[in-house]
Specification:
By secondary structure, the chain is of the alpha/beta class. It has helices at residues 23-45, 64-76, 95-104, 180-183, 260-267, 289-302, 322-328, 332-346, 352-372, and strands at 2-7, 49-52, 81-84, 109-111, 118-121, 124-129, 154-160, 162-163, 175-176, 188-192, 198-201, 204-206, 222-228, 236-241, 246-254, 277-288, 308-319. It has 2 domains: 2-241, Purple Acid Phosphatase, chain A, domain 2 (4-Layer Sandwich), CATH 3.60.21.10; 246-372, no CATH class. Helix 6 crosses helix 9 (352-372), helix 7 packs across helix 9 and helix 8 (332-346) packs antiparallel against helix 9 (352-372).
Length: 374
């Protein structure tokens, strides 16, 4: 039985410039330390090879320290072998990157930069399909169909890109045929590009990224342990949790009259997990001004516990009547402002975006009025 780890999309060196404070640095470091976590999983599972199915680096010009430190960490875990495939973010078009990798790669790192068979073991052959450019415009796995391998040898394909219109970047012009494993007689086709683990068929899988970098997939980062017992036996695939950060989208649906504070508390992870959690609370339904203001305040109170926490309440409609406006003020400038915002929020002649801005402003005005009221 041949055992290996299938991973992809490490995106080493990603900057995370959309976040503030020390979080970008923490997320970049987590991407580097995933190398250690993959190696630990390999040792624990008795795997001798780790296949990285593209986008090991986030750009075609990673910083020298990102490159050097990644190779140093991989070398530290010898005799485990690492196979690095060019993806669309670090394609072969980045000639300087791959020249540097070739010059600096330790003995236990294999660069799969050519469409040619690579012997991983005495009876195991790897067939890689390196990305030649960011958008090759063709199925780079076609060459696998006609490759002869020793009789009885396991055939493993390694590729990066979209299956049909199934692509991480939602622009699929480099289509990998979904039945490539069958056409090429592969025992397993290890794919990269999609950041969530997906089974295309029993012999074809996306591993997903081992360390998530966005809310899109809303699942824990994994790598796949793959066991191949023989050419005619379906591979055994086991997901392994590898992430240090969790990215979670928390759906909060409210009805008029619901108290959002305990509803939010029931959704949030336990306190000891929050430092390693990036969470987005997506509120929908209907709520009165007081409830909406209380929800925003509760999220603000919880923010220091989390790596990142935000409230998306665009889908939460605001119920408001004269009594709500009276709680802002019964007369004067504040009441006039409240009346104007209330009218704008209900004005069907305005765009949905304009009405939403008025609703949000009314909620802020309500919160401000409650804060300054003795």
């Amino acid at each position: 039985m041949f055992r290996f780890i299938h991973s992809s999309d490490l995106h080493l060196g990603k900057r995370f410039s959309n976040f503030a404070g020390d979080l970008p640095g923490r997320l970049r470091e987590a991407r580097h330390t995933v190398i250690t976590r993959l190696a630990r999983s390999a040792r624990e599972q008795g795997a001798t090879v780790i296949l990285l199915a593209g986008d090991t680096f986030d750009t075609e010009t990673p910083a020298p320290d990102v490159l050097r430190q990644a190779l140093t960490e991989m070398a530290h875990h010898a005799p485990i072998q690492w196979v690095i495939l060019p993806g669309n973010h670090d394609s072969l078009q980045a000639t300087q990157l791959w020249a540097t990798l070739k010059a600096q790669a330790p003995e236990n790192v294999i660069l799969a930069v050519e469409p040619r068979a690579i012997a991983l073991a005495a009876d195991v052959v790897l067939l890689p399909a390196p990305c030649t450019t960011r958008r090759p415009g063709r199925d780079l796995t076609e060459w696998m169909d006609g490759v002869a391998t020793p009789e009885g040898a396991a055939r493993i394909g390694l590729a990066h890109g979209a299956v049909q219109s199934f692509s991480e970047e939602e622009i699929a012009c480099d289509i990998i045929t979904p039945d490539r494993a069958r056409r090429s007689g592969l025992d397993y086709l290890a794919l990269g590009d999609w950041h969530g683990a997906v089974e295309v068929d029993p012999r074809t899988r996306y591993s997903g990224t081992p360390e998530p970098d966005r809310f899109k997939h809303d699942r824990f980062g994994t790598a796949l342990l793959v066991r191949i017992a023989g050419p005619s036996i379906p591979p055994e695939v086991v997901p392994l949790e590898t992430a240090s950060f969790a990215w979670r989208t928390l759906a909060l649906h409210l009805l008029d009259g619901d108290d959002p504070v305990p509803a939010l508390a029931a959704l949030l992870p336990e306190e000891r997990c929050r430092r390693q959690t990036l969470a987005r609370v997506v509120a929908t339904g209907r709520s009165r001004l007081a409830g909406r203001a209380a929800l925003a305040a509760a999220v603000d109170r919880a923010k220091p516990d989390f790596a990142f926490l935000e409230l998306d309440d665009v889908g939460l409609a605001t119920e408001c009547d004269v009594e709500d406006l009276d709680r802002i003020d019964r007369a004067g400038a504040l009441r006039e402002a409240a009346n104007a915002l209330f009218a704008e929020a209900a004005d069907e002649n305005r765009s949905a975006a304009e009405r939403e801005i008025a609703r949000l402003a009314l909620v802020r005005l309500y919160s401000h009025a409650q804060a300054i009221r003795p």
